[in-house]
Write a structure and sequence with these properties.
Layout lengths: L5 E12 L2 E13 L4 E5 L6 H9 L6 E10 L2 E2 L5 H7 L4 E4 L3 H4 L6 H12 L4 H14 L5 H4 L9 H13 L5 E5 L7 H18 L2 E6 L2 H7 L2 E6 L2 E7 H6 L4 H8 L48 E5 L2 E4 L5
Parallel strand pairs: 3-8, 3-9, 6-7, 7-8
Antiparallel strand pairs: 1-2, 1-4, 4-5, 9-10, 10-12, 11-12
Helix pairs in contact: 4-5, 5-7, 7-8
Length: 321
């Protein structure tokens, strides 16, 4: 068996704030193989984006990894020097950010922003970088790429800005692509076009891909495996079809029950009761879902155990289904 492209084990992360320490991630583990698309799903506040910022080395200064490791292609990301991280960030690991209008420089032409990445990470002349940037825009199916190369972000639609972000991320042919809510704010038709494009380019280049989303339906359509996160914990990991067919963690089951699909009416959807716990609490329960769970019991203070529910299907729960 080949080692995974990305291997995250026991990752914990905290933020130091004026109102206390925020325990954002605790003992997070998952892996991504070359050519595989892994979805990371969960409610807002689950720690999906923060985890990937930590892997990319772009955490806020208040945040810090307190335990665990993360290996990318044999390179240890946790504790690496900033110069070493900067050398692989954008070249070997790339990220599509959630809001392209805030991620792109508003006063720099989009073509020059792609050229900046190429000049930073490849042995390319300015003239070659321009041709390559136009080709990148063409690959993400932006019409009239020569003219769009000279456009500013405010002159493009939301869908076109998202395609520019994809072109930026893929300019250096990275081995791993992290797509953080890549369809936020887009209409349904544009969402499908953007996701189909990311899927096609990933398959063509055999990239490992992480899709961060709160939309379980989107993850089910495009991912090979799904990692379910709840308030900084990974609670279930399984092949997509297996997870959707037979969820074992109560939180996963409730997420699926709250996800609209074509055969169900709105009345059939059920909300997840309660709210996310305050991560600054000193008395956070071992199971952070226990206060919202129908299966919880007062005795659930032992460390959360992992159960093997099937081939490549792991669930972290005291009472899995």
């Amino acid at each position: 068996l080949q080692p995974p492209l990305l291997d995250v084990a026991g990752l914990s992360l905290e933020f130091r704030t004026r109102s206390g320490i925020v325990h954002a991630l605790e003992d997070v583990s998952f892996a991504v193989a070359k050519g595989e698309t892994v979805g990371i799903v969960g409610e807002s506040g689950s720690g999906k984006s923060v985890m990937c910022y930590a892997l990319m080395g772009i955490l806020d200064a208040a945040g810090g990894i307190t335990a665990g490791r993360a290996t990318f292609g044999g390179f240890e990301l946790v504790g690496a020097k900033e110069d070493d991280l900067a050398a692989i960030r954008g070249r070997e690991m790339a990220m599509i950010f959630q809001n392209p209008r805030t991620a792109l420089n508003p006063i720099r032409r989009v073509g020059l922003q792609i050229e900046d990445v190429l000049l930073r990470h490849t042995a390319t002349t300015r003239a070659q970088a321009r041709e390559r940037a136009i080709e990148c825009l063409r690959q993400v199916r932006i019409p009239d790429p020569e003219r769009r190369h000279a456009a500013y972000p405010f002159e493009l639609s939301g869908g076109q800005c998202q395609r520019v972000m994809i072109a930026l991320a893929l300019a250096c042919n990275p081995q791993l692509l992290i797509a953080d809510e890549p369809t936020t704010g887009l209409d349904v038709t544009t969402q499908a076009a953007v996701m189909d494009l990311v899927q096609a380019l990933a398959a063509e280049r055999q990239m490992g891909t992480i899709l961060i989303t709160h939309d379980l339906g989107l993850a089910a359509e495009y991912c090979d495996r799904i990692v379910v996160m709840h308030v900084g914990h990974v609670v279930e990991v399984a092949p997509t079809a297996e997870l959707v067919r037979a969820p074992r963690h109560p939180y996963t089951a409730k997420l699926i029950a709250a996800t609209p699909h074509g055969a169900a009416s709105l009345r059939a959807l059920s909300a997840i009761r309660g709210n996310l716990p305050d991560l600054r609490r000193a008395d956070l329960p071992r199971c952070r879902f226990s206060e919202r769970c129908d299966r919880a019991a007062p005795a659930f203070e032992a460390p959360l155990p992992w159960h093997e529910a099937g081939p490549r299907h792991l669930v972290r729960c005291h009472r899995p289904a």
